[in-house]
Specification:
single chain, about 350 residues, alpha+beta, 2 domains, two-stranded antiparallel sheet, 12 strands
Length: about 350
């Protein structure tokens, strides 16, 4: 029960933080350009708490993200035609407001990676037969193996590396093995039968490799964080390019798959969770810049069109573009959710 609650809290925190950062980017630039922001909500649905200042700040029931509502943000509704409306601003100023959301996600990713390098430490796998995290309900967990236990031998064969440990366990699904472990000064002999793992297509007892954390100096952390953000961005773009050209199989995860990954990292340690959180924020930065109507990138394209043509698209054209964008996003969500469910239930 506590593990499930922990995973739910991690999921809520992850989705809430990356989307809140995105909306805060829009919010802060809108305020700098003197656009009146009517509402800033953390979460969606009915409001639990309201704080009314110049902007009304809301804490809403569903804590998975947030939104802002700017004055005069609908181009075709009746407006007061005052200077504090979104559409009273020039196309270039509106582009800055829209672009600020994805940029905020990029900087959030940078800050998260920096905190891992400088504060929490980067986990590096150790090539030693030492148990890291133990997966609950697995043979190792039932036998009483604890994190930090060192596997000395399996079936009287000495084990000195993690590769040797894996080599002895994987081919023996369903076969009882004599495993000798060292815990402090105590030596214990256990008999454990690996269970077949369909993901590995081999036997497993449910222990994870152990990791050692390494922290980096401040300046080095700044450099490594920037290099990681830029490198992952180009790597993702290259992967998408190969997927579009059908050179690699497209593996897309939707909200279900992302929530599942977050839940798994919750059991691996906070540094792992932070790395995944940074990757999610970086992907949100990229996805929102795609030139698809309804996304920030789509709005930027429309405002650029307005700058070139010297007029905003007609209401009919605008609605058609929005409908196309909605259809694309729905298809992407359905495709990604289908992939997620297939992985979970292994159809």
């Amino acid at each position: 029960m506590m593990e499930s609650l922990k995973q739910i809290l991690y999921v809520v925190f992850a989705f809430g933080l990356v989307i809140l950062a995105h909306e805060f980017g829009h919010f802060i630039v809108a305020r700098r350009l003197k656009i009146f922001v009517e509402k800033f909500s953390f979460g969606f649905g009915p409001a639990i708490l309201k704080i009314k200042r110049k902007t009304t700040y809301l804490l809403s029931l569903i804590p998975l993200g947030g939104y802002i509502k700017m004055k005069g943000e609908n181009p075709f509704s009746e407006r007061e035609m005052t200077e504090d409306e979104f559409f009273s601003k020039t196309p270039s100023e509106r582009i800055l407001v829209v672009l600020a959301g994805p940029v905020a996600n990029f900087f959030l990713a940078f800050f998260i990676f920096f905190s891992v390098y400088w504060i929490f430490g980067v986990p590096h796998p150790q090539n030693l037969p030492i148990a890291g995290n133990i997966i609950k309900g697995t043979p190792a967990h039932k036998a009483g193996i604890l994190p930090g236990d060192r596997i000395i031998s399996i079936n009287d064969e000495e084990i000195s590396t993690w590769q040797e440990l894996v080599k002895r366990i994987q081919p023996n699904a369903g076969k009882k093995l004599k495993i000798v472990i060292k815990r402090g000064d105590e030596i214990k002999t256990l008999f454990i039968a690996p269970q077949y793992n369909p993901e590995l297509k081999a036997g497993a007892i449910g222990i994870m490799i152990s990791y050692k954390k390494q922290r980096y100096p401040f300046a080095r952390s700044l450099y490594l964080s920037a290099a990681k953000c830029v490198g992952l961005t180009f790597l993702t773009l290259r992967y998408l390019s190969l997927a579009v050209r059908k050179k690699v199989k497209a593996e897309i995860s939707g909200p279900i798959g992302i929530a599942t990954m977050i839940g798994k990292t919750a059991n691996q340690g906070f540094s792992f969770f932070l790395n995944l959180l940074g990757l999610i924020s970086l992907n949100l930065f990229l996805i929102n810049l795609f030139p698809i109507p309804l996304l920030d990138g789509g709005h930027i394209v429309i405002f650029l069109w307005e700058m070139v043509r010297k007029k905003f698209p007609s209401e009919k054209t605008y609605n058609i573009l929005q409908t196309i964008g909605l259809a694309i996003l729905l298809m992407a969500i359905i495709f990604a959710s289908r992939n997620d469910l297939l992985k979970i239930f292994r159809f």
